[in-house]
Amino acid sequence: MTPGTADGAMTVAVRVIPCLDVDAGRVVKGVNFRDLRDAGDPVERAADYDRDGADELVFLDITASSGERDTMYEVVRRTAEQVFIPLTVGGGVRSVADIDRLLRAGADKVSLNTAAIARPELLTEAAAQFGSQCIVLSVDARRQARQAPGGRPAADPAGGPGRFEVTTHGGRRGTGIDAVDWARRGAELGVGEILLNSMDADGTRDGFDLELIRAVRAAVTVPVIASGGAGRLSDFPPAVAAGADAVLAASLFHFGEASIGQVKDTLAGAGHRVRPAPPPRIPDDDGTGD
Q: 21, 52, 55, 98: which is the annotated catalytic residue?
């Protein structure tokens, strides 16, 4: 099955994308954006992933305070000098001017979240100025169980256990917006891609939320990046089978539990087309592999 279609011929390679959550110039990772652990220097990590065959990189500034903005621009500049694969940057992007500055710093795509929720027209303005291919809508979705009389969970009208709500602030604040409807509207407003984050699964390593992926895949024709929950190699093929055009992971890569090549081999073994990863590097006498 081709990513992004129900049963079309296989033509587009599935992208494997490491995500680097950046806080004050360092890569960090936790569970549901809490209990953060240091995972290294973002530029060094990016260069490693580039050499290991990553198809793209995503940087997310998870604090995005005004004081951290200059740090992030510098990280983007340094990274763009070291890697030769597309780089998406998000977090704290509030205006067309912010997008312009990140693209000038070396980003290839910019991801928008909270600012787009506050003013959806920003998506159209950004797509018109920079092209849809540069604009990514990040949808942080959390499962929202419906309540039946007596407070019991009720079945969703579509057959699922509950709807998905768009959240902000690392999944801690609800917006009352249906995530599937929001992804559909973002595509209509001109974004070129949906970065679909399952906030329930983030950092848990329990697997991607396949129901969420299927629901958004059925609602949009733009590419969908599945994010949140990757814990083992076997988690990746089901996400693609559910409709993801790309799969994103963080902890699994950062802490050496799986490599880009292993994920690609697993996807290829399940019948999905991938771009080949380079052969594993053999360490030199100095242990660098250079």
A: 21
